Amino acid sequence: MRFTKGRRCRSPTLKALLFLFVFFTALEITRVRRSLAPPNIDIAPARPERIYIASLHWNNERILRSHWNQAVTALATALGPQNVFITVYESGSWDNSKGALRELDSALEQHGIRRNITLSDVTHIDEMNAPNAGPGWIETPRTRRELRRIPYLSRLRNITLEPLQDLVRNGEHFDKVLFLNDVVFTNNDVFQLLNTNYGDYAAACSLDFSKPPSFYDTFALRDSEGHEMLTKTWPYFRSRASRHALTTNRATPVRSCWNGMVVMPAEPFIATPPLSFRGTPDSLALHHLEGSECCLIHADNPLSSKAGVFVNPNVRVGYNGDAYKAVHPDGPLLSSWQIFKGLWDNRFRRWTTTVWFKEWIVHRRVVQWRGEDKHNNEPGEFCLINEMQVLIENGWKHL
Fold first, then answer.
1. What pLDDT does residue 1 have?
2. CATH no. of 51-398
């Protein structure tokens, strides 16, 4: 009789708890689905702005010809030839990226769009065989002196900014710098990105995808607390501020991002001294730590702490046509099941995992490095990961 009585007492409680769980989960899913369905209208720039567009390319012939060239030409035409300057740097591709970019050059010429398209014959092998003096070269565990990937990429990115600085010295003004990866995008994507947080930001980034639903650029993205992504799928973030903004489809605060397409005010890049891309010091890299130049730029940008860095969840780009279509479906972006699974997977991981050990290893090595020289300092510690990356003939390698 006692067993039966206890069982009867527990049953209403369990039913009530189950009812509350289902009720509040349904409310949460409904809220998220509504927020993920913004009005399907054309977006126009909030006000005319002069945009400097910068891009790097290496072995991108396929996407250049299938999507990118046409998208860039359409964007520049929509912005107005008088309001845009395009700089493209191609670095030693072995496909026919050079031919594709010559076609872009011709198309931009026909539309009266100013540009600087540089086609370099210097390959990775040439870079690796260059005299290994100066920053960026380190002794690696393979007992070789090798060129680090990030200082190499930083140098190329800084080359794309040189025409901007020349133009400004000659009296021209630019409001924003738009950095474009080899991604599929539309004019609306760029216009929405420009309007992120009503145009008030130190940087605004898209979300990028290669194999949806998995997010692509995990190297540069850090949430509002400086943590790496919790998951590669929605809602991605560990920090409450980033996660809440994303699930309500608002400009999402982060410490850093790149994600295929990023727009930043031009002011820091034309200041004295100008903001520039960099890698971590070689002496720090010897502690087996590396950070993306696309993250470190936000750590160095004086506007980051004042205006904030944001991801715009409504701007989604793809590294191929299929990926772009997948993140721009005709119906809802996420099903009710995907929302439920994403929310609870995120909760479970937050409740059962920690970033403390991974970040402690990085911090311990940074502290050791700082102790080696009183001048050693790295403001972008949140960008660092436990890796060493070097250039190789056909790309780059983890050591």
1. 43
2. 3.90.550
